[in-house]
Amino acid sequence: MDTMRDRFAPVVSRLLDEDPRVAVVLAEIGWDAFAEVQRRHPDRVVNVGIREQLLIGTGAGLALTGLRPIVHTFASFLVERPFEQVKLDLGHQDVGAVLVSAAASFDWPAGGYTHMAPGDVALLDTLDGWTVHVPGHPDEAETLLRHAVAAGDDKVYVRLSVQANAVGRAVDGARFHTVREGRSGVVVAVGPTLDAVLAATEALDTTVLYATTVRPFDAAALRHATETAGTDVVLVEPYLAGTSTAAANDALTDVPHRVLGLGVGRRELRRYGHTEEHVAAHGLDARSLRERIGEFVGGGRVVGVSA
């Protein structure tokens, strides 16, 4: 199966051909994949070099002229390093862009901590008005990229990953989707965590919601799920643990509830290793999730067994 990032350049190249408003801004990373389309649209495919603050500033400048810029590099260089420009050049000037990241939490362990950004969504959460898409499969990434470009002049973040679920699902760029229904708690699986969550909860009587758009947070879907499954809620996110716990708490503010946020821990893992080893070390593999979810949700009630 190809990766989400494998889809990125072909999809965006087609968008450049289809829509004269679309522009692409790069900072060396990914430049080779756009060489052909750059010859067709030299004024709308820009490489600023290894200058991440300029990357965001250029995208904002293009937006001010009426274009719809797609800005791409690794998450640590797209959100963390130029955060002031994201806040001011886009947010303060009230212009939109589509930021598309790669290699976020720990997708490229050999790159070391400079190339890891598990706090990217939490950092964007400090700003107003961002839509955040976290696809869990290359097909979903393609759909959500198109949604993002078509979203008027909004500020949109699309988080691509080498981690992916085995099967893509129909996503609409807005709602959480019910994958499994139960009566003993709700588990919200974000993006590429879905397969591990489904394996972890196979014997538990839980509702599983699938989220590929996490901002705005689909409070209505969570509230609806808790009406039959109870108000023990577990969030499983492929980035910083607890990023969405406040949003879940706000959704259930008028009812007694409990929320457990699972995700990437704050402790830095100083041995590079492989992606799968980082997943396990942060407790996001199916075995670890089974233990952590089972201890929390509904007393670990098993399907078909009386409590």
Describe the structure.
The chain is of the alpha/beta class and 307 residues long. It folds into 2 domains: 4-159, 3-Layer(aba) Sandwich (Rossmann fold); 177-298, Rossmann fold (3-Layer(aba) Sandwich). It has helices at 4-18, 35-40, 52-64, 75-80, 83-92, 120-124, 138-150, 194-200, 219-229, 245-251, 275-281, 286-296, and strands at 22-26, 45-47, 68-74, 97-102, 130-133, 155-159, 177-180, 186-190, 207-211, 213-215, 232-240, 258-264. The strands form 2 sheets. It has a 7-stranded mixed β-sheet, sandwiched between helices. The chain has a 5-stranded mixed β-sheet with strand order 7-9-8-11-12, with helices on both faces. The longest helix has 15 residues, at 4-18. The N and C termini lie far apart (41 Å).
Tell me the name of the CATH homologous superfamily of the largest domain.
Answer: Thiamin diphosphate (ThDP)-binding fold, Pyr/PP domains
Shape type: globular
SSE series:
HEHEHEHHEHEHEEEHEEHEHEHH
CATH topology of the largest domain: Rossmann fold
CATH architecture of the largest domain: 3-Layer(aba) Sandwich
CATH class of the largest domain: Alpha Beta
Provide the low-confidence segments as ranges. Answer: 302-307
Total tally of structural domains: 2
Question: Biggest β-sheet: count, sense, barrel?
Answer: 7 strands, mixed
Give the structural class: alpha/beta
Rg, Cα atoms, Å: 19 Å
Count the E strands.
12
Strand content: 15-25%
Distance linking N and C termini:
41 Å
Strand order of the largest sheet: 2-1-3-4-6-5-10
Layout of helices and strands:
Layout (H helix, E strand, L loop, with lengths): L3 H15 L3 E5 L8 H6 L4 E3 L4 H13 L3 E7 H6 L2 H10 L4 E6 L17 H5 L5 E4 L4 H13 L4 E5 L17 E4 L5 E5 L3 H7 L6 E5 L1 E3 L3 H11 L2 E9 L4 H7 L6 E7 L10 H7 L4 H11 L11
Parallel strand pairs: 1-2, 1-3, 3-4, 4-6, 5-6, 8-9, 8-11, 11-12
Antiparallel strand pairs: 5-10, 7-9
Helix pairs in contact: 1-7, 3-5, 8-12, 9-10
